[in-house]
Amino acid sequence: MEERKWEDLEFDCLVNVLGRVDMESLLLYVPFVCKSWYKASLNPSCWKHLVFPTDVDPEWDLTLIEKFKVWYDIHKCSLYSFIKFVVGLSHGNCTGLSLPDGFSEEVLKYIADECPALISLSLPVDHFQTSESLSILPTLIGKWEHLENLRLGSSDNLVDIITQISLACSKFSSLGVSIATIGEKEASTIVTCLPNIKSLILRGARMDLKSLVIILHGCRNLVHLDVRNCTGFNSDEWVLELAPNIKTFMCEGSMRADYDDYDVHGHHYFYECFDG
């Protein structure tokens, strides 16, 4: 039997395969395999799920944008220009996007205009510009009516963001926030605006038991809740008993920082809320 060659693969099949390839390979290697691969790599379907890597390649000691500039002998290419170029390859078909460190308000505005089909959006963690960039996010949420999954690098403007999600994104089901501060206001907003949320990831948050109870008491459709390594409550059997119906409830490593508020945020509050 004659062995089939990759370059002879039907175009639609090739596009389907390349759509599963990482961004670096699509940009730097796939176009140079053969003409059919180059042509297929330009299909918008190959660019529906975009994950911008932020790690430095240990072999090259360069980030992806730096490798891109070297590979194509480009002397000037800002992060905004690079993101704009890559996102533009999707021709409005991008449904999943994970941004790199250093993104700006300009980037978010561009994405809001050019990615109307966005279902999943992830913003980086531990970035000094995140606060400034997130300040404009509430005004852009309305352009992503199909948004279902959002990952934020901080809890800045969280109340406004969640409020806008409730108004514009009817299928929204999953929220993750890194380095979050979840007080009663934030917890109440989650319950009021996202009562049917399925997945909530607040790992490493500053959140007391009272705020956690507000969420557990109000979000009855939660299937996945990650509150591991939080500060403000203990990961003991009392906490586990708060959510018997949540399929995946992770709270390992969480602990109270101040035991003086036991009567307010501790087990007594648990009894008050659930036992009357």
UniProtKB/TrEMBL annotation:
Gene3D superfamilies tied to this protein: 1.20.1280.50, Ribonuclease Inhibitor
InterPro entries: F-box-like_dom_sf, LRR_dom_sf
Source taxon at top rank: Eukaryota
Annotated protein name in UniProt: F-BOX DOMAIN CONTAINING PROTEIN EXPRESSED
